[in-house]
Each structure stands twice: as structure tokens, then as C-alpha cells.
Amino acid sequence: MAKKTKTSRVKEKETEWQERVVQIRRVTKVVKGGKKLSFRAIVIVGNERGQVGVGVGKAADVIGAVKKGVADGKKHLVEVPLTKSDSIPHPTNGAGGGAKVMIRPAAPGTGVIAGGSVRTVLELAGVKNVLAKQLGSGNPLNNARAAANALSALRTFSEVAEERDVPIEKLYS
Questions:
Q1: What contacts 70, CB < 8 A, 6 or more positions away?
Q2: Predicted confidence band of residue 167 (pLDDT cuts 50, 70, 90)
């Protein structure tokens, strides 16, 4: 039998998580000697199977900022309960900074109808049929955080039934 090498395991882990850079900004800090340049990267990390995270990284170079953003995104993962039709269980709202996001489930075949960073968050979470609307701010970071906040508020029927100490069948009646 062939022995598995360390590199094959690392490759499997890398393919599980997808990362998308939403924005890279050049930011400056005014210091005694002048202006200090650095980069801010907004990265969304997800496995398309119900886990997604929004991360921000700052560094002197773009590659370093993206790496820090990926690490930050993995620290702030959100579990998303998906239905059989690859949608969400119920409508939800989320807020992040000045941004508000409204997310609603959609019928199979609808696709992801959302804009900007909210679309990226939903796609990397593995949601295939959903309607979303950004309200308020157009800031990509705040909208991504608002979408993650909305997805974290989702609950399944079984979770609700368990909280209420009621059988699932009673929820429908």
C-alpha cells in the first residue's frame, strides 16, 4: 500500500475551503515621518456545505493581508442550516454597522438573487436558491457582516420544537 504523504492531506484541506476576496483597499496611517501605507483585504471563506465566515486582514503587502483575512474568516465561522432544496428554512434579517440585509428562501431553480458581498456570502455558504436585498449602507464589509449575522439567526424546525418542548408534528398544526 502507498503511504499518504503530508502534501496530499494539505491539498484536501485547501480544496474544502473556498476563499473569495471581496475588496482590497490601500489605507494610510499618518505617522511622525509621513504616511505609512498598508492594505486591507475583506475575505469571505466558506465550504459550500453550511459554513461561512467574513474576515478582514491588514498588512504591508496584499498577499499578507489576504492571508490574515482568511485566518480571520475561519475564526468567525457561522453555521447555516440548509433545506433539502438548498435554500434557507425561513426569512431573516441581519445588521452589521449601517448595513441591513433581508434574506428570504426561494423556490428550487431560482438561484442566488443578491448583490455585492451578500451574494458571495450566500454562495460560499452553499445556499443555491435565495432572494436577498441590501438596505442602508453599500459598504461591502458591513453588508457581508450583516449577511453573516442574518444567516447565524436561522433556526431549523427541529431546533424550534426542541426549544419549545413540543414534537415537530405539533409545529405545523
A1: 19, 43, 45, 55, 57
A2: confident
The residue type of 154 is: L
Q: Does domain 82-160 have CATH number 3.30.230.10?
A: yes
Q: 16-77 has which fold?
A: Double Stranded RNA Binding Domain (3.30.160)
**Which among 92, 72, 70 is positioned nearest to 80, based on CA atoms?**
92
Beta-bridged to residue 14, according to DSSP, are: none
pLDDT digits (tens, 9 = 90+) for 108-128: 999 999 999 999 999 999 999
Q: Residue 102 and residue 8: Cα distance in Å, rounded?
A: 41
Cα first-last separation, the chain:
57
Using alpha carbons, select from 47, 36, 45, 49 the residue that is nearest to residue 67. Answer: 45
Rounded to the nearest 10 degrees, what angle do helices 140-152 and 116-125 cross at?
A: 40
Q: Are strands 112-113 and 130-136 parallel, antiparallel or unpaired?
A: parallel
Task: Return the C-alpha cell found at 59.
Answer: 498588512
Residue 100, C-alpha cell as written in the block: 441591513
What does the alpha-carbon distance between residue 173 and residue 171 come to, in Å, rounded to a whole number? 6
- Beta-bridged to residue 35, according to DSSP, are 30
At 44 the three-state DSSP class reads strand
